[in-house]
Amino acid sequence: EHRLRASWGAGPGTLVAIHVGRIAPEKNLDLAVRAFRQLQVQQPDARMVWVGDGPARVALQRDNPDFVFCGVRRGTDLARHFASGDLFLFPSRSETFGNVTLESMASGLATVAFDTGAAREHLQHQVHGALVADESGFIDEAARLAGDHDRLRAMGRAARAAVRRELLALLVG
Question: Where residue 141 falls among pLDDT bands split at 50, 70, 90?
């Protein structure tokens, strides 16, 4: 949505990286920060949006005054936030499943995530985003994908279609 993106300081051509989830130390959020800072070298006007809250938010916000913090969102409002981003950064290594991976895919976002949990099960590498094995791969893939807006959109469309197919198969099956 254009108004929501504008409220984040993002124009139509501005890359918006987004993270949705609890803002806590165990979520490996420093990696998302480092990945964003690396992609920002190529795209200085890029925006980093955080949806959620938690004990690490105050320090993260203090140390990164250019980041946008939206707080906890639910339902349609959460879907609008997801769908207004361009690239979902999911640096957590501790997820047992990771529903946000499926939510980001359903919202049409390319995703960078570790090759575990829901990402391993549902996200196809280089089709819906990138599955990575280590932190340097996470940073490299985020920067690489961020540099190709057309590919990001194509991956987002493919991710959304994949989730739709899986849901239809569950309903019909």
Answer: very high
Q: What is the pLDDT of residues 128-138, one digit of tens each?
A: 999 999 999 99
Angle between helices 29-42 and 135-146 (to 10 degrees): 40
| Conformation bin of residue 117: beta by default, left when phi > 0, alpha when psi is -120 to 50 | left
> Residue 24 in 3-state DSSP?
coil
Residue type, 82: F
The C-alpha atoms of residue 11 and residue 136 are separated, in whole angstroms, by: 29
58: closest CA among 23, 97, 16? 23
Joined together, the tokens standing for residue 126 give 């280089």
Q: Report residue 96's pLDDT band, with 50, 70 and 90 as the boundaries.
A: low
pLDDT digits (tens, 9 = 90+) for 48-66: 999 999 999 999 999 999 9
Structure tokens at 90: 């999911």
pTM of the model: 0.95
- In angstroms, the Cα distances linking 59 to 33, 47, 66, 72, 132 are 12, 18, 13, 17, 27
Question: b/e map of 92-120 (b: 16 or more CB within 10 Å)?
Answer: beebeebebbbbbbbbbbbbbbbebbbbe
Report long-range pairs for 130-138 (Cβ below 8 Å, ≥24 apart).
135/31, 135/34, 138/31, 138/35, 138/91, 138/112, 138/114
